[in-house]
Amino acid sequence: MKRVAIYARVSTSDQTCDNQLHDLRDYCRARGWTDVREFIDTGISGTKERRPALDKLMVEVKARRIDVVVVAAFDRFGRSVRHLVEALDLFHHLGVEFISLREHVDTGSALGQAIFTIIAAIAQLERSLIVERVKAGLRRAKAEGKRLGRPRLRVDVRHLERIVEQGLPVREGAKQLGISPSSFLRLARQHCGSGNGSAAAMGGMA
Hints:
This protein is of the alpha/beta class. The chain contains nine helices and five strands; from the N terminus they run βαβαβααββααααα. It has helices at residues 18-30, 52-62, 74-77, 81-94, 110-143, 157-166, 170-177, 181-192, 198-205; strands at residues 4-10, 36-42, 68-71, 97-100, 105-106.
């Protein structure tokens, strides 16, 4: 028995999902599907990043508790073309069928599998383009002499030395300098780890 999820959405609170739900329920009944769950977003713009019902649906999909997702149309489901491509790519990898009534798309059919192949290729192309843009940006920054990675921590060295000499606990010393304990230990070893008894003081702090 296939576990089916139907998803419906309208953009404003004065609209209703009844028409979508009527068609989606009829479709599921015609296929003989009885294990059907409904995920409905009302008054949610299609471009919004967070959609409560859609987010719950995707959690169920990733937990492999859904076998088929049925929607009235692409624009009821996807936030954008990119989001739709990424979602279909995920469905493909998890073995989840996707059906859109208006576009007559059923990825459980032979034609649908071809669509999945195209979607996967588009998703791979998008990932490759992102990687290439990142690499190009890094090359450009390096050529311009920009420092890459996290900015170097700047602390008052004399204040650091006084804290080390006082033998304060690591967490307390880090708090006084406004840095993390691990950063405090690293800086303390760099600046105070040799000579004039500082190393011994650090040993007591740790």
